[in-house]
Please model this.
Amino acid sequence: MSILLSPALAFLIYIPLVIILLLGGRSMAARGEANPVKTSMYGSGSAAPLGTAAPGYRPFFLIAFYFAVLHLGVLVVGSGGLTPNTAIYLFGLVVVLIALILG
Model:
């Protein structure tokens, strides 16, 4: 029964489920016609600004990747026992997190 809690098995179960949901969503989506008005930028009735308002998504993705590594690492460590392999894994996790912090 504990095999069902394995992250690898959960990954193998969720991938086909996501593909089924994706294909089901595509089949229910309305078909649209190509129109330049649909692809143009909307600036609330005025001309769209030429410059960017934000510096980009790089800081966001760096923080998102940091928390993804942190949460998945804690999940893997929490699902295992306290062994020497866990200590090696935690050391690797700390190295990755420090590398992400230092950029």
Summary: The longest helix spans residues 7-28. The two ends are 41 Å apart (CA to CA). Residues 57-103 form one domain.
